[in-house]
Amino acid sequence: MGQDLRITEIFYSLQGETRSTGLPTVFVRLTGCPLRCRYCDTAYAFTGGTRWSQEAILQEVSAYAPSYVTVTGGEPLAQSAVLPLMRALCDQGYTVSVETSGALSIAGIDPRVSVILDIKTPGSGEEARNEYANLAYLKSLDQIKFVLTDRNDYEWSRAFIADHRLHERCEVLLSPVAGVLPPADLADWILADRLPVRFQMQLHKVLWGDVHGR
Predict the structure, then answer these.
(1) For 41-89, how does the pLDDT look when each residue is reduced to its tens digit (9 = 90+)?
(2) Is residue 164 part of a domain?
(3) Residue 7 in 3-state DSSP?
(4) What is the CATH number of the domain that holds 119?
(5) pLDDT digits (tens, 9 = 90+) for 141-171
(6) Terminus-to-terminus CA distance in the chain, angstroms?
(7) pTM higher than 0.85, yes or no?
(8) What is the number of domains present in the chain?
(9) How far is CA 166 from the centre of its chain?
(10) What domain range is 47 assigned to?
């Protein structure tokens, strides 16, 4: 039972965000999250789920014969057994990424894993939960993501990026909250400020809306 994980869903879809947008990917969505961001679109993963052994997860992933695997949530790092799972996925030869809220330490993650680290903005309601010590563990393989609700979030993020010289550490991603911040506004701000970031929208929402498991 020590390496069992509570899983909400495992599914095959196109990567909707990050530098791997558009690539066919298997998603392993873990159950549970200690945060409650105002704009969260995966609240269905807060509770419930089914307990899976690591072996069963690896078998399910392999059935899709993928190149890319994303471990997500919820907050995947809230379950300690996710660390050996990610190591096992890397050992299987997959290109592995993990999406984390930034509230828990990334120190123990296998260095082969690309960490997608959220920095929570004021508009998320969870800014106080940011674990800034994580910045010291970032690798060039990793990515930092800011999800923005308004101009205030943008200005806060712009200052944070500059203060910590984040674009020199790894790739920086800025995303508008769907249905809240018009994407064109964020694009215009980035261009006007010559910001060294990648603008992104959630491809899966463009294609399929809010359907789970897509």
Answers:
(1) 899 999 999 999 999 999 999 999 999 999 999 999 999 999 999 999 9
(2) yes
(3) strand
(4) 3.20.20.70
(5) 999 999 999 999 999 999 999 999 999 999 9
(6) 29
(7) yes
(8) 1
(9) 17
(10) 5-208
